[in-house]
Amino acid sequence: MENEAQAEVPGEGESSKTVPDSTNADAPSSPSDGLREDTFAKDGEDDNEDKSQGEGEDFTEDAEALKQELETIVVVPPEPEVPKQPAEVFDPAEFPSSYKDNLPKELMVLQYADNFRRQYVHLYRDRKPLLLNPVNECGIEKFVCTTIRPSQLPFKELYNWEGAAEFVADYLNFETLEPAFELPTRLLSPATVLKRQKGNCFEFSTLLCSLLIGAGYDAYVVNGYATRETCLADESREICPLLKKKEEQKEEKKQKVTKKYTVKPPKDLRSKFEQKMEARRLAEQKAEEDKRRAEEEQKLAELEKPPPDPLHGLRIHAWVLVLSGKREVPESFFIEPFTGLSHSTGSESYLGIESVWNHNNYWVCMQDCSDGVAKLNYDLGDCTMWEFMFPGVDKNQLLIPEVEDDLDNLDDDEDKEEEEIHLDLPPSWVDPLKLSQKDFEMRCPQGKKTKLYKRAKLEKFAHYLLDDGLISRLSVFDDKELTDLQVVKEYYEHRSDKLNMRVHNHRTGWVTEHFHPGRSKNVKEHCYRASAPAPENDRTMHFYDEARVDGLLKRIETPLSMTEHYKNRDDFLFYKHVDFGKRTKKFGPQDEVVTSNPRPIVKMIQRFERNSKKPANCDISELIFLMNEDKIQLTYHTVDAHIASSTREFIKPQNWDEKGAMLAWSPDMHQTFQVDPNADPSKQVELYENLLQLLKMEESCREGVRESEEEVKEIINDRQKEEQASELDISVYDTERNEKAKKHRRELERQQMEEKMRKQEMEIDYLAPFLAQMEDPEKIGRSDACKLKEDCLADLKQRLIDKANLIQFRFEKETQELQKKQAWYQQNQVSMSKDDEEEYLNYCSEAMFRIHILELRLNRHKEMAPHKYMALEQRLRTDPRLAEYL
Amino acid sequence: MSRLYDTVEPSVIDEEMLQKAVEEQGPKDEAGKIAKREGINFSDVLSLRLDFKNILKIDNLWEFTALTKLQLDNNIIEKIEGLDLLVNLVWLDLSFNNIEVIEGLNNLINLKDLTLYNNRISKIENIEALKQLHVFSIGNNEIKEYKDILYLRQFPMLKTLNIANNPVSREDKDGFKQYVAAFLPNVEFLDYRLLDQQTKTAAYEKFQTQVEEQIDKDNKAKVAAEEQERKVTETQRHKEAYVEYLNTVKLFEDMYADDPEGNKLNQIPGVDEMLVVFKEKLMAVCQQLFEFGLQEYDKRKAEVDMFWECVNEAKQENKEMGMDAINEFMKDKKRIFVEMVQMTDTKMVDNKLQEYNDQVTALWDKLMGLELQLVDQLEEIIKDFERNMQDLVSVFLESVQAYLTQARDLENIHNEKMIESATSALEKAAKNELDEDVPEELKMLLVDKDTVMNAVTSSHDVHLLKIDNKEDDIVTRINNWLKNMIETIHVEQEIQRNRMRVTEITHLIDHLRDEADLLDLVQGVV
């Protein structure tokens, strides 16, 4: 009974125009209405029982009176909304017919949607209207679900949601809704949006949803309410996502395992009470500090809070919902189309949801959104929470526990009947989405985009757009007004010097450059002061040690020292430190180059890892060359059972730096401390040989230092040159940009073209006109063949004769004319001026030349004609079509 | 060939010759002068050359224990001897001598280069121990047989071989070369020439079948050797678990090994079945004991490993703390010394010196404290460990005793049955119903009751004795093991280690004090 009554209400409403219906008041009702009403009523029963009951009674009891009363009310249907901003007008000729017309099925769906809307509006008078069938570019109403066109574009970056969302956010410029609290009346197709490179939030979401569904995600467009910042894509209160990632580094703590025989720690003899008091005091202090910090933070947050929004909760927004399940998405989340970032389903940016839809179905949210979206349930099959529009189209059924299977089997038949009469959606009317490689690479409109974040500014550039390969620049500021520059990070791509990132810290004045592997000196990171880029200043260089022969990992320099760290060396060296002294001034000829006056070395320290092949007491751990004092100090590794290490000190012989000199030895040049008091003292010979070896090591160490200095200079020089040239690498596979490849391809194309032309020429059929005369017989008989041959030969003969005649005719004409001219000349020879005479002579010689040529041609023609005739005959004989008869 | 004896006077390796050679071949220049002043120990010499000396007998070289290179070429040596102590030798040159047999090289396991060129050797032998051999020169000798080449297959590192000008290669030079290339695929240089891949392939193709056969033989031998080795290690493990051979019939066999009476009695008809049952049951008990023993062994091993791991950890930690303390002190020392050198006021220098000495004392306190702490800690865990091991061992012994009691019970039951069958056999014998094929020696026993019963009892006694012996053996061995281990731990970990560390600390502290004094002296001069 109730169902009946409820079903008729909308119809009544329509006739009396009480239901506010903005656009589609006169849509004819269709047989499908009943069907939908049935389900709809059943679904909506629980929520709206009392409401429908009341209305049903009114209708039956005082129908007449009410009717009269109602008729007195004149309800003016709301005017179709005129778009406030002058809407962009599209030329309908640009679009295929699917944009300009509706198929019968689409019409049916529209009617169905209309009916749905009317019922919805009737049942939920206080809710905002739904976005169901906005007009498209050509002013034709289209159902929103069919505007989604699941598609996969041929770019691997778009296969994951992160890439797709970032692309949409980058590629399009956004437009706000006007006014912010009303639904748009027009929804452009994703194909058009891609072309225009701008759109509102609904168009953003529809495009993104199309890509995500195409990539296999369970994605939906969400229509709801959001904060002002979200609607206006104002991220100036958000921390830049590039800065965020670094903070999420976790430190793993090593848990010490207590084993059965682990020794007990020594007894703690300190007073327990004092410790407790101390701990309490510290805790209090800490709590106080925490409190203060929290207060400060709160204050700061208060300061940074946006001013109150008068339209809070009314601003309409659209975004994308990705449900868990498909493509290994573990948990449902939102994607904000303007920023391309994901938000949890409990995000505070979103204030409520009206409806969601994908390419299959449309669901209206039936849950309370007064507390934001945090508590919403996204089981779309649950009809108490989500009112669906098309029953059974989607697989999102309420998750019924298995136990009830038996019960279901009972009314299996009913289910089947229901399923059979479901309405399915027509295919999307939208053109296939197309995106060229070039446009995809341009990324943003004009290849540039600037975004503002909290205390940060991010500029993005398309690859290859800028000459120096810059693709993004992140500037971090210290204040909100973005005036106090702190750090600038520049990201590069495709640079031939492998520069990857440059960080310029304006506070400390340090510049850090990061490189990809593959540079000639294998530099990985180069850190220097922007004010002093020259050599022999503060700098740090990191290297790709596995690519270097000497295993250099890091080189740290200050004006008076240089420290190098190594890894995996055969000689177990892992650390080298050099202290330089002040340059002594040279009083010599000025023309000497600076390199010939290197900084004097004061001290060199080398440290070695343990070499397990040598006994620890002979394995040098630290080796110090004190160049000023002519001393060499050695420290050996510690033997396993000992805690102290043996040491040795040598004093260099006086004449150590003379070449080829005999080095004298005396026992007091050497001092030692041996850990093991019982060890045999070393022999003097051994010590002497040891000293010789050390002197050699010192020499090679010094050479190494000078080489390092040279290398630094070289690297810096290279960097300067590269920075000036700033060349970009182009992949050999990049046919668009690689000039050489392009040229090669063009050449190939041209050759192909020529080949084709030649083939075409070859294929001109000399028999075609004769065959045409015979009306193109399918098969050539014997008589036909003979006739063809005769005709062909006759024709050639005729043409040859014609040609001969033509040449003959021209020859005669020329001769005649010459004769005429000669006659005229003879007559007027006396009265002629010199010029005329000249002209005549010229003419004569030219005419004679022409005559001569014609004569030659005629002769040759006469000579060639029989040959040509014979050749044709030969050819006819061998022609595959005629050969069997001739 | 070598010179004849009578043409030259043979000489002996004596002190004088050695001293001269060492001095000649020792360090040169300044180093030589120093060395001469100081004297050279023969045990430090690394290389020695004694060529063209007409040496007849290798002798007096036992002092050169560090020697890695020894040249004895161009002498008249007839026998390789006296090289047993030169275990560090890497290079040995005995070319141009009169050697006939390769011998006396088995101790030189580090030898890489062995030259026996131009001798009178007729067979390659006695060098199995030289697994490191890289270069082997046996040219100009009397090698006659191809199978000597096969002998060289056991040296995987052999890269260079010189075997030219032997009787074996004289007839068919190319064929011999190919033979060598095929059977010694690791050799890269043969008779001073590179064996290229092409030659090797060709040679291999020529002798393919034989080579394959040889390889097969080698592999089989290898597998057998591995098997043997595996068995040895397995038995070793069983021995360590004190249950060796208990998974076999050895105990049962032992029981009857020294038991002539029992063996005779076993020939009584019907006893063989009983014997099978007895054997099976005994085997089952032994097997159980065996498995239990292995389990216990694993437990003990885990316990011991854990103990050592923890001890080493504790020592390492303690060592690190000590090293940290020393390093910190060294930094301070450097600073103080620099300051002292720059000072001029004696009073301040004295103050500084006082400060330094205080710090040295503090370091001594710290290091000694750490050592004492470690001693306490170790003592405690050693005690724990001792107790736990004691428990484990006693549990094991109790179980062993229980299992062996089961074995004894089985033996008793078997004995009763034996008595029964013996009695019935005796009766049959009395009635003359015995089968004809009963052996004579059994008939001898079955004469009267006493004889039979004596035989049965003596057999039973032997069996019990065997079981008792087994038990005693296990108990003694495991107790000895435990005692030894605990003793070693006490001595090594507690006493020796502690002494060494304390000596070290004292030595270090003394050195540090001396250093300050030395510095002070310098100061005084300045």
From TrEMBL, chain A:
<feature type="compositionally biased region" description="Basic and acidic residues">
    <location>
        <begin position="34"/>
        <end position="43"/>
    </location>
</feature>
<keyword id="KW-0206">Cytoskeleton</keyword>
<dbReference type="InterPro" id="IPR056292">
    <property type="entry name" value="DRC7_C"/>
</dbReference>
<keyword id="KW-0966">Cell projection</keyword>
<feature type="region of interest" description="Disordered">
    <location>
        <begin position="726"/>
        <end position="747"/>
    </location>
</feature>
<keyword id="KW-0963">Cytoplasm</keyword>
<dbReference type="Pfam" id="PF24667">
    <property type="entry name" value="MORN_DRC7"/>
</dbReference>
<dbReference type="GO" id="GO:0005930">
    <property type="term" value="C:axoneme"/>
</dbReference>
<dbReference type="InterPro" id="IPR033551">
    <property type="entry name" value="DRC7/lobo"/>
</dbReference>
<feature type="compositionally biased region" description="Acidic residues">
    <location>
        <begin position="44"/>
        <end position="63"/>
    </location>
</feature>
<keyword id="KW-0969">Cilium</keyword>
<keyword id="KW-0282">Flagellum</keyword>
<dbReference type="Pfam" id="PF24671">
    <property type="entry name" value="DRC7_C"/>
</dbReference>
<feature type="region of interest" description="Disordered">
    <location>
        <begin position="1"/>
        <end position="64"/>
    </location>
</feature>
<protein>
    <recommendedName>
        <fullName>Dynein regulatory complex subunit 7</fullName>
    </recommendedName>
</protein>
<feature type="domain" description="Dynein regulatory complex subunit 7 C-terminal">
    <location>
        <begin position="779"/>
        <end position="885"/>
    </location>
</feature>
<feature type="domain" description="Dynein regulatory complex subunit 7 MORN">
    <location>
        <begin position="445"/>
        <end position="731"/>
    </location>
</feature>
<dbReference type="GO" id="GO:0030317">
    <property type="term" value="P:flagellated sperm motility"/>
</dbReference>
<feature type="region of interest" description="Disordered">
    <location>
        <begin position="280"/>
        <end position="307"/>
    </location>
</feature>
<dbReference type="GO" id="GO:0031514">
    <property type="term" value="C:motile cilium"/>
</dbReference>
<dbReference type="InterPro" id="IPR056291">
    <property type="entry name" value="MORN_DRC7"/>
</dbReference>
<dbReference type="InterPro" id="IPR038765">
    <property type="entry name" value="Papain-like_cys_pep_sf"/>
</dbReference>
Automatic annotation (TrEMBL), chain B:
<keyword id="KW-0433">Leucine-rich repeat</keyword>
<dbReference type="InterPro" id="IPR032675">
    <property type="entry name" value="LRR_dom_sf"/>
</dbReference>
<keyword id="KW-0282">Flagellum</keyword>
<keyword id="KW-0677">Repeat</keyword>
<comment type="similarity">
    <text>Belongs to the DRC3 family.</text>
</comment>
<keyword id="KW-0206">Cytoskeleton</keyword>
<protein>
    <recommendedName>
        <fullName>Dynein regulatory complex subunit 3</fullName>
    </recommendedName>
</protein>
<keyword id="KW-0963">Cytoplasm</keyword>
<keyword id="KW-0175">Coiled coil</keyword>
<dbReference type="Pfam" id="PF14580">
    <property type="entry name" value="LRR_9"/>
</dbReference>
<dbReference type="InterPro" id="IPR001611">
    <property type="entry name" value="Leu-rich_rpt"/>
</dbReference>
<keyword id="KW-0969">Cilium</keyword>
<keyword id="KW-0966">Cell projection</keyword>
<dbReference type="GO" id="GO:0005929">
    <property type="term" value="C:cilium"/>
</dbReference>
<dbReference type="InterPro" id="IPR050576">
    <property type="entry name" value="Cilia_flagella_integrity"/>
</dbReference>
